[in-house]
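Dear Dr. V.,

Thank you for agreeing to look over these. As mentioned in my earlier message, I'm a first-year student in the group and I'm still getting used to reading structure tokens, so any feedback on how I've presented them would be very welcome. I ran two proteins. I've put each sequence directly above its structure. The first is here:
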Amino acid sequence: MLDAVLLNMKSHGRIAECGMVLQYNLKQPEGVHNLFQIVVKRIRMEGFVVVEYSPQYPEYLGMVLPQIREGKIVYVEDIAEGIKSGPAALIELFFGKNVGKQVVAVARE
């Protein structure tokens, strides 16, 4: 994916990188071939860890929840039904087979 992204980045673009779930279980991580584009296009690429932003979470919720309620932000969930579907849903998550947020619905209210 990053190969394609780098080729389509604008000059002075920025890439935020958090997690690489697809790479976690590979015996040998996959390589990137278009890294020179970072130099040519003067792209900034920076990793981050979500827990660094925990203090801002309440402020974020105050901003995003009203927008979700108003339909201004729409999210996608990939729902697996039942506890027995949990292990398969987890495996599919690591292979990128889910769309949006992976959820296992154990019981419906």
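The second protein is here, in the same arrangement:
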Amino acid sequence: MVISVEGCYMSRVVTQLLYSLGANPHVVEVSSDDKVHYEHGQELTAIFVGGRLLGGVDKLFAAHISGNLIPQLKEAGALWL
């Protein structure tokens, strides 16, 4: 799941990366007028994998570059490879 502010270009980048890996993320866009507070203090864009907070865009790309993202997606059932 990707949660972001409406029109955020980085959420589109994140979504395209996940699509290119074979995942089909659920995207929730929050109005920039809404005040959203998360328990973990996470800023938007927030990425959840298997119900767990992965983090922001930086954490997603770090997991992808290190080779940890695909195993996490498989474990969560987001990939059928």
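From my reading of the second output: The mean pLDDT is 87. The chain is about 35% helix and 20% strand. Does that match how you would interpret it?

Kind regards,
E.
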